[in-house]
Each structure stands twice: as C-alpha cells, then as structure tokens.
Amino acid sequence: MSVQSATEQPQLVNRMFETAEQPDVNGQNGARRSILIFAPHFDDEAIACGGAIARHTAKGDRVVVVFMSRGDSGSTVPGHEMDPKTSERTLKAEAEKAGQVLGIVRQVYLDLDDGFMGWTPDLLREFVRLINRYRPSIVYAPHADESHSDHRVAHQLVSDAVPRSGWGAFPTLADRAWAVEEVRYYEMWTPIQRPNLYLDITAYVETKLAAIRQYASQLVMVPYDDGILGLNRFRGATTARYQYAEAYVQWAVITR
C-alpha cells in the first residue's frame, strides 16, 4: 500500500497568521505529561525538535523517542568510512549520549532499513501499539512535505495511527484506547511552508546544540548544527518575538 493511499487525514489547527507561542501546559491536576517522538533516523530528534524536547524535560515531562532506522547504512566519507555494523553501533551509542543531554527517558529501536521504509499494515499496528503503550499527550513526527521518503512515510504512519489509538476497537494492540491530544509535525530536510506553531527555544538552544554534537559521525558529512541554528534563528526572527524558535504544523486531534 502506498503512502498516499492511507485514508486518515489530519485536521489542522487554523492558526496560520498567529505567531504567538502556544503555552506548554501540564496535564490534569498539574500532572507531568508523556511525550512521544517518532524519528525516522538517528539525529532527527535532536536536529528537528531538540529544543522542544529540552523544554519538555525541563518541565518534568517524560519523553520517549522511537527511532525507525537501524542506522546501518554505513559511511563512505574519506577518513570516516564505516561498515554497516560499525555504523549501527556508532549511531545507537551517539543517540544514547544525545538522549542523556536532552533528558530522554527511553529510546525504542524499530530497526527498519534506512532509505527503504514503506507504509504497511503491520508497521501501522506497531505505531498504534507504541502510542497506546506510552500514552502521550503530544506526539512529534515529520511534516507531510519532507523531501526524504522515510520522513513522508513516518508522517503518514503517525497521521493514521493517532486516530486508531483512540478507537478502542483493537484489544490485541492494547488493553485500552488512548486519545492523543496533539500532534506537532516538525521540519528536518524541508522547511515547513506555512507553520502554525512556533516554540521559543532560546533558553534551550545550547542544550539542543550539545545534543546534536553527540552525533559526531554525522557532522563530518553535513554541519547540521550550524544549519539548524540558522533555521531556528530565522524562525525566531520571523515571529518578531524570539531569538531562536522551532516551527511546527500543529494538529489538535479529534478522535471520532
């Protein structure tokens, strides 16, 4: 089944002309929230939403990251060559270090093939299981128009899994349904054309950069730290309010 053939489509919050940040409120009775991040590849979580993660953990929220890729695509960069097994070990070790910097409590590995991910019913069921297991208030995932195919697959899987996790019609997937309150779609390879949510990450930008720099194997190929700092600075400038900001497409979920 192709990504485009999946049927669920998110209804987005219409805040296209609002630049004001939406407050990160706690759950009922002041309870800290559970946050679930879907990252197609190692380092996506730090680059795309590291500021948001640092904000959440600073407030006491419990953040879990699901890494979809196995990380074994290797490297042919001169002087930094890695075979697939070495690449996998290196990236998972770097992810652990980045998670410690950001305060992530758990990392889940799906061990899918980098660059060859596809929408399947079994993978959709796994996404539903993960949502029902970790019971997040907010889910983060790539936005719909990312240039990387793995990111588009992740977007569609999350968009399909979030409504299903609240249906309560799948006893084989979870003991009880879970209704996600909000999805925030992030930008990684391709900037979002029309964000409707900006998060002020000024106080957390150094933590974000420190997390990104744990991925030393990736920075020898692309200066992701410098690149994302420029994008976050631009996002902050265009809100006319923040020094650094992350931009998102926000979906306030209504489960039918």
What labels would you give this structure?
36% helix, 7 helices, Rossmann fold, 17% strand
What can be said about this structure in brief?
About 35% of the residues lie in helices and about 15% in strands.
Q: What would you say this structure looks like, in words?
A:
- This protein has about 260 residues and is of the alpha/beta class.
- It has a single domain, classed as 3-Layer(aba) Sandwich (Rossmann fold).
- Helix content is about 35%, strand content about 15%.
- It contains 7 helices and 7 strands.
- It has helices spanning about 45-60, 85-100, 120-135, 150-165, 205-210, 215-220, 225-240; strands spanning about 35-40, 60-70, 105-110, 140, 180-185, 195-200, 245-250.
- Helix 3 crosses helix 4 (about 150-165).
- It is globular, with a radius of gyration of 17 Å.
- The two termini are about 25 Å apart.
- Residues about 1-20 have low confidence and may be disordered.
